[in-house]
Amino acid sequence: MRERGFEVITCPEAFSLLISNGMAFDYLAAVDGMDNVVQDTVMDMQIGLEDSFERVLRARGKPGVLLCDRGLMDGSAYMPQESWERLMRKRDISCVSELREGRYNAVYHLVTAAEGAEQFYTLENNAARTETPELARKLDNMTREAWVGHPNLKIFDNSTDFERKMQRIVEETAKLVGLPAQMQRVTTKFLLKRVPDLAEFPEDVKYQVFDVEKVCIIC
Q: In whole angstroms, what is the distance from residue 112 CA to residue 54 CA?
């Protein structure tokens, strides 16, 4: 991006900042309700970091890209549903779209190496990671589901080697900011003969119901 004239800032993961600066994992179970306090704090930190970095980028006055390691919806994957809903009420958030498409132009989910590239899965490159491969796959799926409903959610699996995986991300980002890209992909939509009965959906199939408004300008 920088080679193409963009200013780029990366926003670190708030939870990793807590862990790398002295908060131990056993804090989460130290006292009743501590996990909620931690997630609330992580959200405060993440919002502050993202908003501050965006402000700096805008003040620079050039095309800019803010790359965030994690996003606000990720917290829902690490909390029971009722705890997440309680946190939303505490923060006076009536709809999670404020945290999802309301803040992020695109969401790139990089599938864990524990799914499809198990031989490369390691805990050595991240002090905040402690999961076994089995748990990593479970959390990966839960995190992915947390972003269902974002119109620009992209999944990058391990069907290619790591270098090609990164190249796919670069090409998607280039398309997002209006730069030429080799990879061509279009969104597929289906016209249904009848309104689906949501009660018939399997429990493991996540979905979002939303309205789409299109405004056409006639010149």
A: 28
Contact 133, 114 (CB under 8 A): yes
**Nearest residue to 155 via CA among 109, 113, 112, 116:** 109
Residue 123 CA to residue 170 CA, distance in Å, equals 25
DSSP class of residue 58 equals H
Tell me the CB-side half-sphere exposure of residue 32, using CA atoms within 13 A: 0
Alpha-carbon dihedral sign for residues 154, 160, 162, 167: negative
From the list 99, 125, 100, 128, the residue with the least C-alpha distance to 113 is 125
Model confidence at 26, pLDDT cuts 50, 70, 90, reads: confident
Residue the block writes with tokens 């524990």:
114
CA nearest to 3, candidates 57, 63, 56: 63
For residue 27, give the DSSP letter: G
Write the pLDDT tens digit of every residue in 93-108: 988 888 999 899 999 9
Q: Is the pTM of this model over 0.85?
A: no
